[in-house]
Structure formats: structure tokens, C-alpha cells
Sequence to fold (286 residues):
Amino acid sequence: ITKTDLLTSTGALLLGVIGDPIAHSKSPVMHQAALSALGLPGSYVSMHVKPGQVREAIAGIKALGFRGINVTIPHKLEVIPYLDHLDETALRIGAVNTIVNDNGILTGYNTDGIGYVRSLKEEAVSDLRGKKIMVLGAGGAARGIVYALSLESPGSILIANRTADKAEAMAGEWKELADIRGISMQQLPSYLNDIDILINTTSVGMHPNMSEAPVDVNLISEKTVVSDLIYNPLQTRLLAESEKKGCTVHGGLGMFVNQGAYALEYWTGMPAPVAAMRNAVLKSMA
Ligand code: ATR
Fold:
């Protein structure tokens, strides 16, 4: 991809994110910093798209000459019928968070899971082979993460969910990729003392409900690495209490930055300026 391929005839690289709600997204500040660091003229804008308006929004992306967009809650599934291609990862996860527009041909990707796994490996557990992993939650975020983790040769993945059926269905779908099992929250305590990595994918503990934790931290072994996808707050109650016990902890900021970095690489073909992106997000949260 050359710079001239990326830019519209007016000389700008157009990028953005669609979601509902979208006002508090940190993606614009992160990607604007990335464009500056890469010396690319362009804009990354937040676009509030309500449910039922996704088809028109996607047509608008093409008409306006956007090179790429991110897709966030609640549109990650709804966009799929309007795309021309889906890459293998997005297809398996069944959700799209990144769209690349090649002269009107739209391809959907999912960078959430690979972004998370890259962050986990860089910041907390460099080698996931043989690890016993427990994932809390079985929603959209969990799907991306469990799929990406299953490709890392883990020892086992247990998915614990309030609605156990959903955890079992997800485990069944990918059982040929890894030893994956679904359990209920009631079964969870009996497994917790023998888990290498515990990952919270639920929204429990997210701003503004920061006094909540998805699991009783007293049940977690201090040998377990505790990871939370939430990055607002940077330190959730789960992470703060686990750290106090002596656990290694890993927050969600790295996943957010890396999912954006992979998206930017799909759009531009250039290595993402990850440090500049992370710093921009941190500065906006200070
Ligand atoms: P996301 O895309 O963020 O994963 P989602 O698809 O709505 O959002 O999934 C939310 C997940 O968090 C689900 O696993 C949900 O559990 P259920 O399947 O039982 O609904 C879980 N979750 C949300 N709020 C929760 C709560 N208060 N306690 C326990 N689990 C919760």
C-alpha cells in the first residue's frame, strides 16, 4: 500500500469508529496520535450509529471514501451482512471490530483476541503453552479471546459464565482447537486454586461500578496471574485485591492499544507506533 492509495483525492486518510454509545471512546485520541507519529495527514472520528442504521452507515463509509473503520458495541455482529469478505479470525469469532475499504470492497477483521493475547504475552505470561486458563464470561469479548487463546496451545481453557449454557456452547464450538470446557459460576470455586491465568471478560467492575468484582478474590491462588479486560479503571477491584494477595496482574489497556495497533496496520500497511498510542490513551485518562 502506498500513501497515495490510502488518501482520498483531497489528501486525507479517513478513519473512524461506529458504536452506540460512542462519546467516551478513547479510539480517536489513540489513532490521532498514531497518525501524527506516522506523519499521515488524516482524521479518526467517532460516529454515533444507532441500531438499525448500520446498513446506511456502511454505505456512507463507502460513499465518503473512508479507508477503514472500527466497529464497537453493539454493531460487531450486525455489520457482517454488509461486508464483501471476512477474514478467517472474524469468521470463526463471528464478530468484526475492524473494516478495511479497498476502493469500495469491504473486508472485516477481528483484532480484539489477537490484541489481547499479544498484550498478555508482552506484559504478563510470555509463553501460554500448557497453561491452565479460566475465562470469566461467555459474551462477545470472551469469544474473541477464547479463540485467540486456543491457538496458543494452552493446557486447558475453562469458560465460567453466569449462564452456563452459553459457556458450554462456546466450548463445544472450538473443542477441536484445544481442551475447552464450559462451567457454571457455582462450579467455579472448585477449580480456582489450580488455575495459571484467570481472565475477566465480563463488564463487572467497569466504571462506574468500580466497587464490584466478578469473583471472590479470596478463592484465587497467589500463583495465578489475574487479567482483566477492563481498562477504565486501569486498576479494577479484581486486580487491586489480587495484587494485594501477591498475584501478578494484567489490565486491559494493552489489549485496547494492541487491537487498535493491528487495525491501523490493516488500514495502512505500516507498523503501528504502539508507544505513542498507549501514551495518548494514558494522557487522556489522567
Ligand atoms: P461483551 O461484548 O462485553 O462480552 P456481552 O456479549 O453482552 O458483552 O457479554 C457479557 C458477558 O458478561 C456475559 O458472559 C454475561 O453473562 P451472561 O451470559 O450470563 O449474561 C457477563 N455478565 C454481565 N454482567 C454480569 C454480572 N453482573 N454478573 C456476572 N456476569 C455478568
Observations:
- The longest strand covers residues 13-19.
